[in-house]
Design goal:
Largest sheet: 5 strands, mixed
Oligomer: single chain
Number of strands: 5
Helix content: 25-40%
CATH class of one domain: Alpha Beta
Structural class: alpha/beta
Order of helices and strands: HEEEHEHE
Number of helices: 3
Strand content: 15-25%
């Protein structure tokens, strides 16, 4: 008969399966809670400076702060559509397209707000909306009157 000894020598068995399960669950949790969406838009900053070693022609570009938003006002005067972009009157839709192309070529994407007057038809407002989208504006909005 074997007597039990005071010293018990046991080997510790390290089970890998539960540890792998825990690591897998943590991995799944972090992947599901991560956000892979891009930001909707970058806000312009007055702190942004052109690179120090840049060309002199780059410093003559219009600053970003001037184009926080582009407001296009539409009115019908004696049956003729009057277009104003940021309080500057334009003769026709072609000049509006040129102005939008010029601003959007700077690489900024300010929101374009169309403010139609009471006498402007839906057809005219949608034509200006389509023109702004065609020129590359990402965010084209309609202004609404607050009551």
């Amino acid at each position: 008969m074997k007597l039990p000894s005071e010293k018990k020598e046991r080997t510790i068995d390290l089970k890998m399966t539960p540890m792998i399960d825990v690591v897998f669950l943590l991995l799944v949790f972090f992947v599901w809670t991560s956000s892979f969406d891009l930001p909707e838009f970058d806000l312009p900053s007055s702190l942004a400076q052109p690179p120090a070693g840049g060309l002199e022609t780059q410093t003559t570009m219009t600053p970003v702060e001037e184009f926080d938003e582009i407001i296009i006002s539409l009115e019908n005067v004696e049956g003729q559509l009057v277009i104003e972009i940021n309080d500057e009157q334009l003769p026709d839709l072609m000049s509006l397209a040129q102005q939008l192309r010029l601003v959007l070529s700077l690489g900024i994407q300010p929101p374009v707000i169309i403010a139609p007057g009471d006498t402007v038809t839906m057809n005219q407002a949608v034509r200006v909306y389509d023109l702004a989208r065609k020129e590359g504006a990402d965010r084209v909005l309609f202004a609404a009157k607050s009551d």
